[in-house]
Amino acid sequence: MERADQDLAFMLQYENVAWYENGRVRILDRRCYPRRVEFVECAHYQDVAKAVTDMVTQSAGPYTAAAMGMALAAYECREKSVDAQRAYLRAAADCIANARPTTVQRMRQVCDTALKAAEAAFASGENVAEAIKANAIKANNARYNKIGVMASYLVDMFPDKGAVMTQCFGETIVGQMLKVARARGKQLRIFCPETRPYFQGARLTATVCHDMGFDVTVITDNMPAFVMEREHIDVFTSAADVICMDGHVVNKVGTFQIAIVAKYMGIPYYVTGAPDMGHPDIHSVNIEMRDPAFVLEAMGVKTACDGVKGYYPAFDVTPPALVSGVVTDNGIYCPYDLKRYAQTGNKGEYELVV
Length: 354
Fold this sequence. Notes:
39% of the residues lie in helices and 16% in strands. The protein is an alpha/beta fold and 354 residues long. A hairpin with a 5-residue loop joins strand 8 and strand 9 (249-252).
């Protein structure tokens, strides 16, 4: 099977995101990457859900982990009757889909795809775990290719020798936009806010940019305004954990404030991703609040005195007034016009692929 991860950076290769094999799921531990290349091994689908909850993998990584976790669940229940296997897989889907509260709708789509693949395997007599794994690769190919189309529209917005600011780790779109830019001979300077407290920008986005041969600079989270002005940033871009149909964008906390500065300075903000038709408006989104203790440390080193409090929302909400365009595989949409995307019949990044 031809794979869409070809020519992308190490951590975007399917095996290095999450991979099922021989009754185990192996997930690259992004909490310590790139200083250490380590994998977390999961022997049970609940271990996969816990790895997602614990931020072993982030951005789009949990969606690959979810699919591979469903393959693992099928392996676990392989000796049971077909009806018992169905019940086991449904329980696994519920557990994995709810590993993090803000992305339940997308995770549910991935798990539903695995359930459909299982049903096809039951009907044909195939190995269910291997069928789910094969379908996960097929679904990843479809998603990577869709994001490759998004990347082509996004790179249209970058001037040659342009300066681009990102936020957090946009996973596949980062790799695909750089692949497209490289193919077009566009030279870019990328500026990555560090994205505390897990430092996804510093560790993940910057590493992918460096691995793919681009000029990349890490800045602290309180530098975007200065850097936008001093370094003449041309475009601010991010992926999103949710793009509501009313145009609100839910992404890693810090996106909102950078979008405000970009608007003030006349710099366009393009968010990439398909609108989430399961989220008609922002009121349907549950913003995840994580352990505030992580704010009181940096990569495991405590930075605040005992007794002070932390505050840690995982995401914030950027209103549509600050979004210049939503970059989809159907083109670039005004954030107030996302219903038109749905009217094309496109089911988005995580549509059922069986």
